[in-house]
Design goal:
The protein is α/β, with parallel strands linked by helices. The chain has one domain: Alpha-Beta Barrel (TIM Barrel). Helices cover 43% and strands 15% of the residues. Strands 1-8-9-7-6 form a 5-stranded mixed sheet, covered by helices on one side. The protein has a 4-stranded parallel sheet with strand order 5-4-3-11. It has a 3-stranded parallel sheet with strand order 10-2-12, with helices on both faces.
């Protein structure tokens, strides 16, 4: 159960905030074996650093949640992300759902990733992202909440309302309807809101499940050439994705809200080869008359903790 809603206080001079984050992983939906992991191919590592470059042109930090079992293969990329002033946080070691019944394994996975960050990167993780997202967050899992708190996290981002993803108006309203709250243990939930890129491109705008399955089983998780287009996704999907994100920003802007979208470098690598979606959102945010702060989930947590 949830204890209470918490107040989000935007900084002075900020009309609305967009706490954009990326789950940094090789998504299970693109793997032939359907297993999610952090052993990220070099091409997606480069794409991730290209995202950082886009953000830097707009004086923006990006926030990445990393699956730790690919740490050695991705070490140089993680190190560069941090050196360039961006943020990395814990996404478990094996993409383990935070709702797991095996709380000892959860404890081990969280502590392992925290230790890798601290020992190898001299970096402390403070916000936890729950793999997959859960309709009711951790409302009925006090034991899991306690494990998360014991590993040093005050904030978790794992609730994802997928009640009616076919209803654009319902999805756009998520910053109003699905706001941060405190569990009885004191752990604070920061739901991610609206469409994820995975739900948008590979479900809502999937034209051919057969084409998707054929590609995934034959070529999933591999590099693609410039100009390649996902054979399962509607032709207008990328344009619609950018239009949706502008709509979502408008909703938050008009109401003075915090919006917490979740993206994936792997999804954008396969659906946005020219890397235009992030630039489009940041440019649109900058065009607003009043300030839109595109920030990290850590920044959002600080807005909540100050309430």
């Amino acid at each position: 159960m949830r204890e209470a809603d918490v107040e989000v206080r935007l900084p002075d001079g900020v009309r609305c905030a967009v706490a954009l984050s990326y789950d940094l992983e090789m998504c299970a939906g693109y793997q032939p074996d359907g297993v999610n992991h952090g052993r990220i191919i070099p091409e997606i590592q480069k794409y991730t650093l290209d995202l950082c470059e886009v953000a830097e042109a707009f004086d923006t930090q990006l926030h990445f949640f990393f699956v730790g079992n690919g740490f050695d293969q991705t070490f140089d990329c993680l190190k560069e992300i941090l050196e360039r002033g961006h943020v990395v946080d814990n996404h478990t070691f094996s993409h383990l759902p935070l709702l797991t019944d095996d709380v000892d394994k959860l404890d081990e996975e969280l502590s392992t990733v925290n230790r890798l960050f601290e020992d190898r990167l001299n970096w402390k993780s403070t916000v936890l992202r729950g793999p997959g997202g859960y309709q009711n967050g951790l409302d009925d899992r006090p034991d899991n909440q306690e494990v998360i708190l014991r590993n040093g996290f005050k904030w978790v981002s794992c609730r994802f309302d997928s009640t009616d993803l076919q209803n654009r108006d319902y999805v756009l309203a998520s910053p109003s309807s699905d706001t941060p709250y405190a569990y009885p243990t004191g752990l604070i939930e920061i739901p991610f809101q609206g469409y994820t890129d995975r739900s948008f491109f590979d479900n809502l705008y999937c034209d051919s499940r057969e084409a998707y399955d054929i590609w995934r089983k034959a070529s999933g998780g591999t590099a693609v050439v410039d100009g390649w287009e996902a054979p399962w996704t509607a032709d207008a999907a990328l344009d619609e994705w950018m239009a949706y994100n502008r709509q979502a920003l408008d909703y938050a802007y008009e109401r003075g809200l915090l919006w917490v979208p979740t993206w994936h470098p792997a999804t954008h690598y396969y659906h946005d080869r020219k890397n235009v979606a992030l630039r489009d959102l940041l440019a649109y945010a900058r065009s607003k008359e009043e300030k839109v702060w595109v920030c990290t989930v850590r920044d959002a947590a600080e807005m909540i903790s100050a309430s």
